[in-house]
Amino acid sequence: DGGITQSPKYLFRKEGQNVTLSCEQNLNHDAMYWYRQDPGQGLRLIYYSQIVNDFQKGDIAEGYSVSREKKESFPLTVTSAQKNPTAFYLCASSEGGADTQYFGPGTRLTVL
Amino acid sequence: AQKITQTQPGMFVQEKEAVTLDCTYDTSDPSYGLFWYKQPSSGEMIFLIYQGSYDQQNATEGRYSLNFQKARKSANLVISASQLGDSAMYFCAMRATAYSGAGSYQLTFGKGTKLSVIP
Question: Measured between CB atoms, does A34 come within 8 Å of chain B?
Answer without folding.
Answer: no
